[in-house]
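I'm stuck. Please check this protein.
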Amino acid sequence: MGTVTDATATAGDVDTESATSLLIPKPPRNNNPKIPQDSFHLAYIIYFTLGAGYLLPWNAFITAVDYFTYLYPDASVDRVFAIVYMIVGLICLILIVAFEHKSTSFVRINVGLVAFAVALLAVPLIDVWYVKGRVGVYGGYYVTVCFVGLCGIADALVQGSIIGSAGELPERYMQAVVAGTAASGVLVSFLRILTKAVYPQDSHGLRSSANLYFVVSIAVMVVCIIFYNVAHKLPVIRYYNELKTRAVNNEKEQKGDLTRDLWKSTLWDIVGTIKWYGFGICVIYVVTLCIFPGFITEDVHSLLLKDWYPIILITGYNVFDLVGKCLTSLYVLENAKVAIGASFARLLFLPLFYGCLHGPKFFRTEIPVTILTCFLGLTNGYFTSVLMILTPKTVQLQHAETAGIVLVVFLVVGLAIGSVVSWFWVI
């Protein structure tokens, strides 16, 4: 039987945590006076912002799909962006795992955040200086796809390292990261609704709204760069960094210097420990990505809502994804077998969404599709958050970062497979 408990932990002690809100739960009661408090929830807010930041570029590209589709009518923009972003990110993540012991998360995250900012800045500049709102200038399309690839590289550098570093901290900081990823989707969705309501749906309006997404994303990226470099100075973060340093030094005394063979052995031990958590995450995102966003934006239609329909569906998904990821600030399903089983049970969404295309007439209407889309987001958010929180605690503290990065590899494999499988809806 699965048990539901409050999601809290400190290094070596499990305390009880109550939540004052969905987004910012109270820190665990601190019975150890040596552990600094997270004053004003600054560390939590920083990790929440970082989670929002590393997913915001992807959300900006995918939410500006109206404008890119207008510019490049012969390209399947959603699906091409998804495949390029995920596959490039996956290759880079595998390289990062292989050579992680030769780099630091501090360098990887800063380089990745700067790369995000460069890619986000380049797209509106290309629009202003080269494309200029003209339809069919496919040189601009190919360059945009290249910058999507750069964002994939940046995502590999940032996402794996942030998840890894959050895994070295109490569980509430991992919950902050995953909730932040959902918040970025909600932010861009509401920006999309605002721009669609305010700007005319002509070339000028679509261009203005798309550029707004990228400007906001650039601003958030600058904030993330500042926040991340401030985070290391917070007493609570320094405390857990020092714990990790001591754990690393103790392991070094026991096993000696980290040779290539020792690293391989350690890495495979970590993979063996967390593999079922990883398979659960992988299946979650195979299911999600083969439905969202391609199926939502291209395959279902509404005579009543017209071009508002995909926007409403995307917003519904993102809001419920955020709700699911915030629920773990109140309750975490601690039975890993149940959480992993529920992840595989999400495969049932595939025949259900197939019914939305080819099933009974009622099943193809707006209400069933909207309910299914929101439930897809809710289950994606909750079980992603649960598995992300549980996984780093299954290994020793000094290996929590590596476990987090390996988990992100499983996640991106799921995203890549889901992006490819999404093409089957077209067949």
